């Protein structure tokens, strides 16, 4: 198997995104990407594997430094095309010994060892003769490959001239932005790599399907982490022992603060797990571990961003069917605009399906109830939570999906700090066809609450969450 694994050698001018291409296609955040040129001085091979099965190898190389001189040297040693690869071998031998043209040696060696060329250029600058020497040297190796146009800064103004030029030297040119590319776009460009490899006798297509399977498994695992976290959010509580004669209500602010802090920590933990699943364990997030206004889990004024709107909540809970009542906490208060809603068709569902529900759709003031234990010698146990707020699980899940979506789409070549921008959440609950999902979720949440988070109930939630992951790979 190992013999049939192709090696793609990523070459080009310095600072055109070679390392970025390697990072993106190897899904490896450890590949060094530097704003300064010339920081890559040695070739490094990255082996891409799934379950120990090698799929392909990517070699990051230093850029060409002295292509003109290198080509002049080669031209003196070959008169016919048939002699050219031998001249390149002679070049390697001569310069390895003298220690000259180290960069050229580093990048040519893996090619002469059977690698395939991936020649990276910047599509935002015009094509020019200075690239011709580089491509001519690549041609001399006799190695097949393709040109990869990186539209740096999202601009590929000079696409046509590049395509024409690359086409003559390398046959095929593809456009690929390693920083912006999501998984689908990576698969598209890898398919093109695979075609070149197949045409040269190295089978790889079957292996690419392994990458797709691995992606599915990552979604499975992320769904499981998120289902567990939502279940915990539905059942979590904090407690303390207070003195027998202490005033119970005076304990509430402290308990609530501890409850919220605990929930924030659990959310952070779930986020880290999801990041690790998508191989982004070193990802930096803005405001990580802090309570960022507008981004904080308990900034209830912003809950409409991640959870259901009042109207969605109302329709979902009242028509959610069995168990909606147990999901709890529904009464129309004045703040909800009860009059206009009551006048509408909703009231039928309310009266019929959710009679006897208590407490408010009121936002914010009451997250959970306090419960007092019996007085004992030691004192009195007070607990806070779990929250019965009907929107809390939607907020928790909406935030988790928003984060998961960003992480799953984040290229491993992208090295800036990720902002979980509360101004542009995915608005997942408003999507077409989500009403049915929202109703299923209400039933799942209710079952988790009633069973205090048993395995079967979590499994049920997993079953509803898992299909939502597919959106990260099928939309742009
Ligand atoms: N905006 C943007 N910057 C890029 C892109 N590709 C590379 N860069 C930047 O260009 C610089 C050099 O990238 P690198 O991958 O290290 O290039 P290399 O020297 O060819 O390996 C880094 O600062 C990258 O962040 C791209 O597609 N878009
Ligand atoms: Mg580099």
TrEMBL record:
Residues 8-91 form the G domain. The chain crosses the membrane at residues 338-361. The keyword Transmembrane helix applies. GO terms for molecular function: GTP binding. One of its GO terms (cellular component) is cytoplasm. Keywords: Membrane, Transmembrane, Transmembrane helix. GO terms for biological process: tRNA methylation; tRNA wobble uridine modification. Pfam families: DUF3482 (PF11981), MMR_HSR1 (PF01926). InterPro entries: DUF3482, GTP-bd, P-loop_NTPase. The keyword Transmembrane helix applies. PANTHER family: TRNA MODIFICATION GTPASE GTPBP3, TRNA MODIFICATION GTPASE GTPBP3, MITOCHONDRIAL. This is GTP-binding protein Der. The lineage of its organism: Bacteria, Pseudomonadati, Planctomycetota, Phycisphaerae, Phycisphaerales.
